[in-house]
Write a structure and sequence with these properties.
The protein is 44% helix and 6% strand. Pfam families: Phage_integrase.
Length: 421
């Protein structure tokens, strides 16, 4: 940066220096201090009492105090500013966070991050402190499951912490973001066996059985099932176009990741859907409350017919079916999605296909099911052979290696079977 000043004799000086800081406010203070030193050397010390403050000095003094306060912020003091950003359109490419995303962030901060990092200055949160957090949390018992926190939960905590520190650095509250190592998320083993799936469907409330079955057969999320309409289904092609979902708060939005997708439907689910949508209009919900329905132990008015099922009602239905089927462990609505992915991978469906079906933005998410993939069958790569004998001498190396028939490379054949015939 270029620095200019005028000495006592009226001579103008210029000096070019590189700032040792990344922060704009720190660079400004460093430059002012450097100018004071140079002005004192060239024209005597500056008398600050006789110096009339300029508009720049006034603004700089304000920035200095503000920057000093912000650099001394604790994690707890930074939390409201970060959450305010998450509620604003500047939160990210997709704009403000949804109510569900905000509730998730608030919960992680309130229950985990703030009790540990709350009184630390932002500058004190280092990679060492993050590693110590992982060690502490790995032995913490979850209030919800009564088990130690999973590596996936801890990874989510550190992902949010790193996001917060990146925002603080972008706002010049930190000079750099520490290198936080996020634990690898564990494999997904919370799924139902085929026998348990059949028992669950057999014991499910008839009002919810079809919705549970479609979740098991397609891996669709609960909000996507709630907002599924007749016009989204192509029975002839056995496809469903997922274009929207219903949030827990009751708002309608695009599917997770703001991406629509097409899911394939197995033939048994197609048969079920054909009966389900018979007589319904294209804009009607596939799964809705029948006229006169009234939830047990509730005083709300009977349904008029066609209303959405709430998240709580579907969760309660799955819990009742789980208890009736005597599965013996906790099963949630999202377990249906895990079950579909596990069975699909175990059946040999490629991970890339499963990833598109589930709507995963990153194939690494789908890789959590990879350990269920079957072992390679002996001779599976024999399909690469084109039926012709390998020319003699190829194993000797040298020029004979070039005699291998590579005509398929020079002249591609659109139909590989034509060459064999």
């Amino acid at each position: 940066m270029d620095l200019f000043w005028t000495d006592a004799g009226g001579k103008r000086h210029r000096m070019r220096r590189a700032s040792p800081y990344k922060s704009k406010n720190k660079t400004r203070r460093w430059a002012q201090q450097l100018l004071r030193e140079r002005m004192g050397t060239a024209g005597g010390p500056v008398d600050e009492q006789e110096h009339e403050p300029t508009p720049y000095d006034t603004q700089h003094s304000y920035d200095h105090d503000k920057d000093t306060d912000e650099e001394g912020l604790t994690f707890s003091e930074f939390v409201p500013r970060f959450l305010a950003l998450c509620e604003s359109p500047a939160a990210g490419r997709r704009g403000a966070n949804s109510e569900g995303e905000l509730a998730n962030k608030r919960g992680m901060i309130r229950d985990h991050l703030e009790p540990y990092f709350g009184q630390m200055l932002l500058s004190e949160i280092t990679a060492r402190e993050a590693d110590a957090y992982v060690c502490a949390k790995s032995t913490t018992i979850s209030k919800r499951t009564s088990k130690p926190l999973s590596s996936s939960s801890i990874a989510n905590h550190l992902g949010l912490l790193r996001r917060m520190l990146k925002v603080a650095c972008r706002w010049d509250m930190l000079t750099k973001v520490p290198e936080i190592t996020i634990p690898k998320k564990g494999e997904v083993d919370n799924y139902l066996s085929r026998r348990e799936s059949r028992r669950l469907l057999a014991k499910a409330d008839p009002l919810f059985r079809d919705m549970i079955a479609l979740g098991l057969r397609t891996g669709m999320r609960l909000g996507e099932l709630q907002e599924l309409r007749v016009g989204d289904i192509n029975l002839g092609a056995a496809r469903i176009r997922v274009t929207r979902q219903r949030t827990k708060e009751g708002t309608i939005k695009k599917p997770k990741g703001d991406k629509t997708r097409t899911v394939q439907v197995p033939h048994d689910a197609v048969t079920m859907l054909r009966k389900r949508v018979a007589g319904l209009e294209r804009d009607e919900l596939v799964f809705s409350k029948p006229a006169g329905y009234q939830a047990p132990h509730r005083t709300e008015a009977p349904a008029e017919g066609g209303e959405h099922w709430s998240h709580k009602e579907v969760f309660a239905a799955v819990q009742r079916a789980t208890e009736a089927a005597k599965i013996g462990r906790k099963v949630g609505v999202h377990t249906l999605r895990h079950t579909f992915a596990t069975h699909a991978v175990a059946a040999g469906v490629p991970l890339s296909v499963v990833s598109r079906q589930l709507g995963h933005a990153d194939i690494r998410t789908t890789m959590r099911y990879a350990h269920h993939a079957p072992e390679l069958n002996p001779g599976i790569f024999d399909r690469l052979a084109d039926g012709s004998a390998i020319p003699a001498g190829c194993s000797e190396g040298g020029a004979d290696d070039q005699s291998v028939d590579d005509s398929s490379t020079r002249h591609p054949v659109k139909n590989p079977e034509a060459r064999e015939r």
